[in-house]
Design goal:
Layout lengths: L2 H32 L12 H32 L3
């Protein structure tokens, strides 16, 4: 077990997971809005749909950041010093 690895790198892993997911989901949303029939997100027609789409992207990015922390925890538990 190498818990020092988790203690030293947890913020870097969370930021990386959050930012990558945020940019990928934002890019997917922008591309999806250009299509006639969107695949992943609803077509933004009014302010309430826009707020819902932005909050979905934000909360999904938070979830991906937490997944990267779980991944780091597993790596730190399995690695040897």
């Amino acid at each position: 077990m190498n818990l020092r690895l988790f203690g030293d790198n947890w913020s870097k892993y969370y930021k990386r997971g959050f930012l990558v997911a945020f940019f990928v989901l934002t890019f997917m949303c922008v591309v999806d809005q250009t299509l006639n029939t969107p695949i992943f997100f609803s077509k933004v027609n009014n302010l309430s749909v826009l707020i819902f789409t932005i909050s979905t992207i934000f909360f999904a990015a938070i979830f991906c950041g937490l997944l990267s922390l779980i991944y780091l925890l597993i790596i730190s538990l399995l690695s040897k010093k």
